[in-house]
Design brief:
five-stranded antiparallel β-sheet, 426 residues, Sulfite Oxidase, Chain A, domain 2, 2 domains, Immunoglobulin-like, binds the ligand Nc1nc2c(c(=O)[nH]1)N[C@H]1C(S)=C(S)[C@@H](COP(=O)(O)O)O[C@H]1N2, binds molybdenum atom, five-stranded mixed β-sheet, alpha+beta
Length: 426
């Protein structure tokens, strides 16, 4: 058994080691004073005691047959803006401010439902494939799951994400402003495999995808996308889809606006023309300054946001902090992220955390020393196609104020001298 004195000694040497290693980290000198400055003097002098959880065995295996986070993390949850305009038509947001990697844990993935969550028995679920095909067919889930499958890591972003920031800073949380965003490992059968099974007519140019929810969500997908990388997904982050994300089957279109990844997929119809459904005419089109509207704006533009520090946090200590955030693009990989801490006068290149994947969230990090004064933090992403995330003014110049969807401008967070952080325009 370790004696009390040895236990007392360990954290002291650990602290010294940490501070030594920290000096010069990422170009920001830490120095012993940097971390110690905010810590109360008593904390360093306090004796390390043996806590109750060290004195007796803990909970047994199978304490929770399906695991969940520590109860101390119970505030890390999906949230939304409140009341739904109609029952079932609502969304919840991913708590980006609390996440540490690039994968969104399934229980924290944002939800967007136009008519609630249907609870579907997979044994009763069917997928019909018809229209301009040689062999129209109805698939059971067993029929589909036995076909060759693939797994891919991709982001999914609702095109309405950040849409309330057009006119002025609005959200007081990065969860609310940017949380219609997730990144998961998706497993399913390439749509091209199923299309080969049914035999596509040469004149087929569009695929109508329809959901089994009572919104009967329908979108037209160009045949090129259907053949290139569309997936019929049955699993997410290694386990079967959850009801709120389309169980037992959803369409997934990498890089495209979230709305097109039809959940609870029940029907695919091949045709010559787009089907002009409600979701691609009255909705999910973008009004432009000249009074016209863009239609079929499928790809999600290059975008990034700082998730620490964000308005959800308070900086308690001056000195070293690691700025961290997420960048993504529907056009491919992220090539570079620049970060400004002075309202856009100077920019420094952030470190991109490997792996940097095609059309997936990419985490960036930058060491920063907060001097305790006001600061304005911004991130600017550039993708491998050369697209540069615009400033709000540049986005408005191109798109005006009447759009809701596809807002991808640079986000600014203002750090106050009190350590509080506000949504701002630089
Ligand atoms: N059938 C159906 N599919 C749907 C929707 C829906 O309401 N019904 N919502 C869409 C929208 S607007 C988005 S952003 C994504 C959200 O997927 P998630 O809830 O799994 O995050 O699903 C899309 N697919
Ligand atoms: Mo959406």
């Amino acid at each position: 058994m370790t004696n009390k004195n040895e236990k007392n000694a360990q954290p002291q040497s650990g602290r010294r080691r940490f501070l030594r290693q920290g000096a010069g980290l990422g170009g920001v000198a830490l120095g012993a004073g940097a971390l110690a400055a905010g810590a109360p003097a008593t904390a360093r002098a306090e004796a390390l005691t043996v806590p109750p959880w060290t004195r007796a065995p803990g909970e047994p295996v199978l304490w929770r047959a399906y695991g969940r986070p520590a109860e101390f993390e119970k505030n890390v949850i999906r949230r939304n803006r409140g009341a739904a305009p109609m029952p079932g038509a609502n969304s919840s947001m991913t708590p980006l401010q609390d996440l540490r990697g690039i994968i969104t844990p399934t229980g924290l993935v944002f939800e967007r439902h136009h008519a609630g969550i249907p609870l579907i028995d997979p044994a009763l679920h069917r997928l019909a494939v018809h229209g301009l095909v040689d062999r129209p067919r109805i698939f059971t889930m067993d029929d589909l799951v036995r076909l060759p499958s693939v797994s891919r890591i991709h982001f999914l972003e609702c095109s309405g994400n950040t849409g309330r920031e057009w006119r002025a800073p609005s959200a007081t949380s990065v969860q609310i402003s940017h949380g219609l965003l997730s990144c998961c490992e998706w497993t399913g059968v390439p749509l091209s495999v199923v299309l080969e099974e049914v035999g596509v007519h040469p004149e087929a140019a569009w695929v109508l995808a329809e959901g089994a929810d009572s919104a009967a969500m329908t979108r037209s997908v160009p045949m090129a996308k259907a053949l290139e990388d569309a997936l019929l997904v049955y699993a997410q982050n290694g386990e079967m889809l959850r009801p709120e994300h389309g169980y037992p089957l959803r369409l997934f279109l990498p890089g495209f606006e979230g709305n097109m990844s039809i959940k609870w997929l029940r029907r695919l119809k091949l045709g010559r023309e787009p089907f002009m459904t409600r979701e691609e005419t009255a909705k999910y089109t973008d009004s432009l300054p000249d009074g016209s509207a863009r239609q079929f704006t499928f790809l999600m533009d290059v975008k990034s946001v700082i998730t620490f520090p964000a308005p959800d946090h308070v900086l308690r200590d001056r000195g070293f902090h690691e700025i961290a955030g997420l960048a993504w693009s529907g056009h491919g990989r992220i090539r570079r992220v620049d970060v400004s801490v002075d309202g856009g006068r100077g920019w420094r290149e952030a470190k991109l955390q490997a792996p940097v994947l095609d059309r997936a969230l990419t985490r960036f990090r930058l060491s920063w020393r907060w001097d305790g004064g006001p600061a304005v933090l911004q991130s600017r992403a550039i993708d491998e196609a050369g697209n540069v995330q615009p400033l709000p003014d540049q986005l408005v110049a191109a798109r005006g104020y009447e759009s809701t969807y596809h807002y991808n401008a640079i986000q600014a967070w203002r750090v106050g001298a009190d350590g509080r952080i506000a949504n701002a325009r630089a």
